[in-house]
Model the fold of this input.
Amino acid sequence: MEAALWTEKYRPKTLDEIVDQEEIVSRLKEFVKRGAMPHCLFAGPPGTGKTTAALCLAHDLFGERFQDVFMELNASDERGIDVVRTTVKEFARMASLSQVPFKILVLDEADNMTNDAQSALRRTMEKYTDTCRFILCCNYSGRIIEPIQSRCALFRFTPLPESRIVEHLHRIAKQEGLKVAEPGIKSVVEVAEGDLRKGINTLQAAASMSKGITEEAVYQVVGRAKSTDVHEMLTHAMKGDFIKAREELRQLLVKYGLSGSEIVRQIHSEIFRLPVPEKKRISLIEAVGEIDYRLVQGGDEEIQLSALLARLASDA
Amino acid sequence: MTVEPWTVKYKPRTSKDVAGNRPAIEKLRDWIESWNKGRPSKAAVLLYGPAGVGKTTVTEALARERGWDLVEINASDKRSGDILAKVAGLASTQSTLFSKGRLILLDEVDGINLRADQAAVTTILQIIKETQYPLILTANDPWDPKIRPLREACLQIELKRLGVRDGLPLLRNILNQEGVKANEDALRLILDRDRGDIRSILNDIQLLSSKHGTLAVDDVDLLSGRDRTESIFEVLRVIFNSRTAASARRALSLSDLDQEMLFQWIFENAPYQIPKPKELEEAMSALAESDLYFGRIKKTQSWHLLSYALDLMTAGVAVAKQTSPGGWVPMKFPQKISSMSRTRSIRDTRKKAASSIGVKSHVSVRRAQQLYFPLLRFIYEHNPDEYERIAVSLDAKEELDDLVSGEMTMPN
Done:
């Protein structure tokens, strides 16, 4: 059955179909030509083609039926290194039946693994290196321990340039019979911020409303037109009405499904427009920065942001 | 915002309005009426029964409907036999100015501290002997040895716990007046859970129905984690009213409520209980710090950090609060917990759907929820046919239907 999610429907199948990340693609094609590859580390932000590249590489190496010798594991789904170890063992034990003498195991979100788990993984990689090649995908290569990094060929995926995203979106729009106004596409690109998956998802959502992709439609998808809501939330807080402000915050989190860091980003850009003394802006930036940091540290978005709102409210 | 507690708002005005315990109240009324014909053989009644069944309320109603004065002495107040003698003695012998009737209430006599009030029992016996007015003693436990002499001097009347037969109509009536739609099973559950303690029952239904103007079994389940240690309200009251860090911290031991649940209760109610913005800022900042510790504990399994998280969420909040809101402010139900319970059953569904999507689109379960749930909900709202096509292609139609038609909140 044909995939109905556009991110799948339009996912490249072969390395040739990948039109971005030229340098990476040419290096991967080299592997295909030689029929050999090292362990790889694919690092880069979401939606830049890491998984796609791995899938295409496997396809080109093993052919259509690559699924038999290819396995995808998600480090954040498969709890604990033990699961990874047993799964890998099972998978790697059997010799590859294809002409290529190894199998490929993709471990996604590898930077979510603890250092201990990574060390264990390193030993596993070593042990099965004859029969199995690992491709580790991560957002930040810095979070991968040194011994693993040194055993892998590093590929850095960069956010797609706007022009490339526009190209992709136009191609999809054409195939789906959409009428696209330039401002409409522009706003999708703006939303995507170099993340092609986000761009395609936004386009599909907007298209579900009407075949004509307009700026308004896109804004409705992202709830960005609702950047006024962030403004409203801040206004309530600055009037001293914390309870209303927190209500607004919950709306943003639940109803619009904005993430905490997304809200932080929007607050950050609002700071320069708030009617506050200049010195105040700087202390607000500090406060927002602190929250951004805390969210990374595992803080709860609603609680951390509420503390910021209470701070604004107490200055009212 | 100040709301009257329902325990006050719906306090019975007359003894006829009191729910349940008809025979006992009849007996009590007959005994009071018998005073018209002179002092009866037993000048005092020992009115006993568990907390919250209405002992004080009935007495107050009896005095009120007769236009009598009520002289009320609480035995658990600190007081010596001397004061008792003075107050109760005066009440029992002096006649009032316009020869108005009088009812004397000695509340909680089983709370008498014998060491502090050595003479109390003797004094009370003396009062019973001499009283010119009906005297009502109340007790939770009439078999307490220290009040045995009193028991023998009194007519004993027992008030029983409110049962379902009398309780349901009472709750229905109140909820009707409040415009709350309530599920009968939910009410039965509350009656049972609070063991007929009307005060707790009213507090519970007021709180639970403040959430969305309805009352369902699920709502009640949320409270049932506690086995009648101290109610969550009591814990919150202590935390928000503690003057010292230590006493706020101790409040934790009052409840066996899960600590993160308690965090949510405190977080929800802080802005209502702490009216001064500056103090609220401090409290919220303590909660945010506490939250960080919870985060670190989860990440690193460093359970020794728990203590700091707990200090900050109790003592941190208590010390920040200096000023109380004017009037009684009811506790609010934490939004997070209520949405958790609403989604408890769909959490599994969501996980199933997400892992289906994850496999098909090469992302983790977590990312699948983040990226594709909002997308699918949006498409469902605007183009159901298209949604249907996608859901089928993802092999997760059944689960997704459940999710998009309900409230699909973001994962935590």
Summary: The first strand of chain A starts at residue 39 and ends at 43. Chain A touches chain B through 50 residues (CB under 8 Å). The beta strands of chain A are 39-43, 70-74, 103-108, 132-138, 152-156, 179-180, 212-213. The mean pLDDT of chain A is 87.
